[in-house]
Amino acid sequence: MADGMGTTCVMVFLILGNIFGAAAGLALCALAIWVAVDQYKLYPIASVSGKDDIFAAAWIAIFTGFAFFCMCVFGILAAAKKSRALMITYLILMLIIYIFECASCITAVTHRDYLVGNSNLVKKQMLKYYTADGDSGSRITLTWNKVMNEVECCGTDGPVDWIQYNSTFRETFGTDYPWPTYCCKRKNNYEVVNVEACKNGQNTTIFTKGCFNHIESVFSLYTWAISWYGFAVLMFMFWLLILAMVYYLML
Fold this sequence. Notes:
10 helices, Tetraspanin_EC2_sf, membrane, Tetraspanin_animals, Tetraspanin, transmembrane helix, 2 domains, mainly alpha, 74% helix
C-alpha cells in the first residue's frame, strides 16, 4: 500500500514536471526563432567573419525546444500508463535531446565572446568590407549604414576609426569624405544637416559615439536568449530526468 502511494505521488510530480517542461521547451523554441529571425539584422557582421555560431546554436535550440515539448507530452503519457517500456524510451530520447541542447548553449556563449569580446574583430571587418565590391562588401555596407542611421553612431569606436586606420572606404573616396555620410546627423526628411560641416568634424553635425556598444548588446541579448535561458531549461530537465529515473525504478 505504501509503495503504491509512493509510486502515485512520484507519478503526479513527474506529470506536473513534464507540464512545466513542455512549457519551458516551447518558450525555448520561441526565443530561438526570435534569434534566428535576427530582428536587429546584424547577421552579416557574424557571417562575414565566419563566426555565426550564435545563429547555428539558435537553429539547434529551435529543434531541442520543440523536441523537449514533444517528449514532455510523451512523458506525461508514459507516466500515466505506468509503462516501463515507454518510460525507458522517454529517458533515452530525453537524454539525446539534452546533449544537443548542451551543445547549443556552449556554442552560443563561447562564440559570443570571440565575436564581441572586444571591438577589434568588428572594426577590422568594417574597415575591410565597408564599400567593398562583392556580396560580402554589399551586405556589410548595408548593415553598417542601417546601424549608423538608426542608432546614431559612427564607426566601431567612433569617427576616428575611419581616419586612424587604412580602409576600403578611404581607398574608394580618398580625402573627399573622411567618414561615410551616414555618420552625419540628418533632418526629419533624412537629408544631411550640413555636409561640409560634417566632413570637417563639427560635433553638432556628426555622430560622435561608436556603434560597438549597440552591436555588443545585441549579440549579448541573443546569447542570453539561447545560452542562459537554455542552461536554465537544462537545469530543470536534469532534475526532471532524475525524477523520471526514480519513477522507472519504482515501476
